[in-house]
Every structure is written in structure tokens, then in C-alpha cells.
Amino acid sequence: MLCIPPYNASNNIDDSVVAVATAYCEKRRAMLLLDSPSEWTSVDLAQTGFPNKYAAPSHNAAVFFPRVNMPNPLHGDQIEPFAPSGIIAGIFARIDTQRGVWKSPAGLDAAMLGVSSMTVPMTDEDNGLLNPQGLNCLRTFPVFGRVVWGARTMRGADAFGDEYKYIAVRRTALFIEESLYRALKWVVFEPNDEPLWGQIRLNVGAFMHNLFRQGAFQGASARDAYFVRCDASTTTQNDINLGIVNVNVGFAPLKPAEFVVIRLQQIAGQIET
């Protein structure tokens, strides 16, 4: 995860910094948590400003609205507005530890401890306007207090129909991709043939089955929850000649047997010198 709160609570991060940070997260398989601009002081301003400000939305980034009011220890605990991205990152980390990256970092489990109120109070109707655009709302509820009430990526607008609409789905894919990328580095000096492919299927299958047993995927059986393919159908003779082995991994994050597919490439069949 990456978040870049503004130096001053009333300021914003430059668009150029957001662009660089987004590209960095896409390259590093990370998630960027963005604060809504301080100028969005109403639901109407957020509704019109969100699609205009982020013309090239990324599924490796998410935006949260509004800003929060909380005590400032540097000013005698006076209640002041703050950008929430640091708080959101802490909630992500807490839920990752308690439940796993596949659990949506929102809902009653995503309590914003220490926050006094939101700078813009929101109703269910307001939430219904912003959430379908992919803007994640921060809400206050009686009894439950302040919580994160949205878990969509910047590609989460209903109009996009993106397979990475939800933060949890995208982060699960990034987690699997990064884990397998690191775990399969050993293949580089192995002959690129069926014995190697079988070993890859075995290793990756064990990893995916462990996630399945932890509840990361939907489906009552492993067959409905995930698949691993690494054979002549994924790695052609031309790939072998180029020293490449391809692995296709699918997982069902929302419904059984409805897979999000990750395609990995590794160097293989190199002669050690």
C-alpha cells in the first residue's frame, strides 16, 4: 500500500505526484490510497468533481471521501480536519492481519478509531450517488460510529464493468501475482518441459489450495474456487525457444466458478554459467 497525505491538512497532493505514484503502484503490484480534494465540501462537488479529476482511473488506486475531523495533538487536541488516507491504511493493515487481503476493508469491521466526525455528513442517498461512481464514502452510524463504507477501486464505477471493481479482488490478485512471481524464480535454470510444468502446477496448486482453505475464494470445492494451468497449452514451442514459461492462475473471488485470471511469465530453460 502507498498513501501520500498532504503536508498541510487543508492542502492537496499535486496531480503530477498522483500520476507518478499510480504508475509506481502499478509497477510494484501495490495499491494507492488517495484522499479526496479539500475543495470537495459537499456531495454535489464530489459527484461532479470525481470523474473530471481522474480522467485515467487505475484499478491500483482508490479514493476516499470526505475528509475527517479529529483531535490535533500539536494544537492542544483541537478538533481539525485531516486527510484520511493514513487512517485508511491502518484499517487495511488491521483487516489484512485479522481476516486476509481478500476481506473487503469496509463495513462495520472498518471502524475509524479516534475520528470525531466527517467534514461532510452523508446519508444513504448520498452514498447511493457516489458509490456507483467508484468513490468510497466514509460514514457515521448510530451505535457503530465512524466507518469506511466503500471498497471500490478507481475502476469501480458501474459503467466500467471492470473485473477489478472491488479493492479486495484487486488486492487478492496482486497478492497472488507477487507471491508467485517471487516463489517461481527457481525455474530460471530448469529445462522448460513437462517435468518443470508439472512441478510448477504442484507448487502453485498447493499455494492456491492453502488460500482456498483460509476462505480466500468462493466455491464449496477447489474446482469451483481456483485453477492452475501450466502445460503445452500455455507454453508453446515458440515460448520454449524464447526461454519463457507461462502460468495461468484463476480464482473465484465473488461467485463459484467465475474466475479472475492471472497470467504469469517466468524465464526458464537458461543455461547456468
TrEMBL record:
Domain Tail sheath protein C-terminal span(s) in chain numbering: 163-265
InterPro entries tied to this protein: Phage_sheath_subtilisin (IPR035089), Tail_sheath_C (IPR020287), Tail_sheath_structural (IPR052042)
A matching Pfam family: Phage_sheath_1C
Domain Tail sheath protein subtilisin-like as annotated: residue spans: 11-154
Family: Belongs to the myoviridae tail sheath protein family.
Protein name in the entry: Phage tail sheath family protein
Organism whose genome encodes this protein: Duganella vulcania
